[in-house]
Here is the input.
Amino acid sequence: MPEETDGLDPNVETVLWLGEAARSAPPPGLVARIDAAVRRRAERPSRPMTAVALALAAAFVLQAAGNLVAGEWISDGIDEPYAPHAMFEMSLALVAAAVCAAAAAVRRAWGAVSVLTCTPLALGLGLHGVGELGQFAAGAVLHTAEGVLGLALLAAWWWQWRDTPRPSREAGA
Here is the structure.
């Protein structure tokens, strides 16, 4: 029977010693690059959040462009007087809202700002669009889509927030 030290077969002990001797600590530069990549990944928004945020931004930009290019046609369709000054200012506000919505596609931390500013606007436009169903189909479709995208933005943000790692309460945070 082979002689045993610390309860291990000498051959196993030799193999373990060789395994530990071959293992080296990774270079500090490699550890730093891996840590930086993990941090960058943690700051990126989820794919659903990115898709919904960009879709809502596109809907806002589409409405802004429509107001600038076809404002008179839109006014005729909803039986309202055409006001170029109001259409221009509304378009600027919609472009600002589009930038805010698109911010959620850039950084995970900006998702809350996008939800707080764009979801109420999108839901308001969506509810207003329901009233246009029998009057102006193009507006009804656009506003209803904006409302749905507003709800989807809220849902994507909640899903993303739920999966965001946070410090534990036991750690004193």
In short: Residues 10-39 form one domain. Residues 32 and 38 are 10 Å apart (CA to CA). The chain has a mean pLDDT of 86.
